[in-house]
Amino acid sequence: MRFLKPIVLLAISCYGQSLEDLPQMADNSTNTPVPASSEASKYVLPPLPYSYDALEPHISTQIMELHHKRHHQAYVNNLNSALDELQKLRGQANPDDTDLNWSRVFELEETVKFNKGGHINHSLFWKGLTPAGTPESTPQGELEKAIITHWGSIEAFKTTFYKSILQQVKGSGWGWLVCNIHTNKLAVATSKDQEAILAPDKPILGIDMWEHAYYLQYYNNKIAYLEAIWNVLNWKEANERYILCLPHSFK
Ligand SMILES: *[C@@H]1O[C@H](CO)[C@@H](O)[C@H](O)[C@H]1NC(C)=O
Ligand SMILES: *[C@@H]1O[C@H](CO)[C@@H](O)[C@H](O)[C@H]1NC(C)=O
Ligand SMILES: *[C@@H]1O[C@H](CO)[C@@H](O)[C@H](O)[C@H]1NC(C)=O
Ligand SMILES: [Fe+2]
């Protein structure tokens, strides 16, 4: 079974989301000193970059609080405890790995993948929103130009983007504007379940289409939610992500 180990490690480390946006690991988020040998780094819930009521009336305070403090926190907690258990399992295993419970390891890997995905997605999502009427909340910069070149107008892009979200995201999922780092082309993408946005695509704008993101305010009226969230998209942030996708920013 020894040959399986690299696959396990790879699966955990290769989630295909925008990695420079990964919220930082904090090893001193509590006052408890962490022994250096335990590698007990924890993911932490990043604070919102605005107050819970900042997106009113478009996204209600109640939704923001539940979404951030309950849903996002749960992804973080589940991620940390699955990582802890994996580390314990591996620590107990013999060098030949024959006594490792591989079905538990694979189960935990799925848990890590799902919750890390949720953590990354939501961290991107919060940063991708801003109070309505701020300078950030209107299309701008290179991204605005590229959208107009590609779709003809911002309005035409919005129509295409929302149409594919409404047609393609049936249950829980996300709507994305992505940029291909090789061709620098923009495209609309949707995802459901566990399918990630994979390289070479990088997320520029992301809209959470899970019911917890809108149901308490908009019930099953997804169009009303999409119309509302349009007012609070952070186009400055989106433009910065787009610029990082352009060739001159390769390192
Ligand atoms: C740890 O704490 C120090 C001092 O409070 C802070 O400057 C640093 O950013 C913290 N590190 C992390 C990873 O949170
Ligand atoms: C191994 O993991 C599986 C899946 O979680 C569990 O059902 C089983 O009881 C575990 N076996 C042992 C020996 O702990
Ligand atoms: C995270 O986003 C990916 C798309 O990049 C999606 O497929 C996945 O379902 C999302 N995970 C969660 C838990 O929202
Ligand atoms: Fe969500």
Automatic annotation (TrEMBL):
Residues 139-241 form the Manganese/iron superoxide dismutase C-terminal domain. It is found in: Mitochondrion matrix. One of its GO terms (molecular function) is manganese ion binding. Mn(2+) binds at H67, H122, D208, H212. It catalyses: 2 superoxide + 2 H(+) = H2O2 + O2. Its cofactor is Mn(2+). This is Superoxide dismutase. Residues 42-129 form the Manganese/iron superoxide dismutase N-terminal domain. Destroys radicals which are normally produced within the cells and which are toxic to biological systems. Destroys superoxide anion radicals which are normally produced within the cells and which are toxic to biological systems. It comes from the Eukaryota. Homotetramer. Coiled coil: none annotated. It holds the Pfam family Sod_Fe_C. One of its GO terms (cellular component) is mitochondrial matrix. It is an enzyme of class 1 (oxidoreductase).
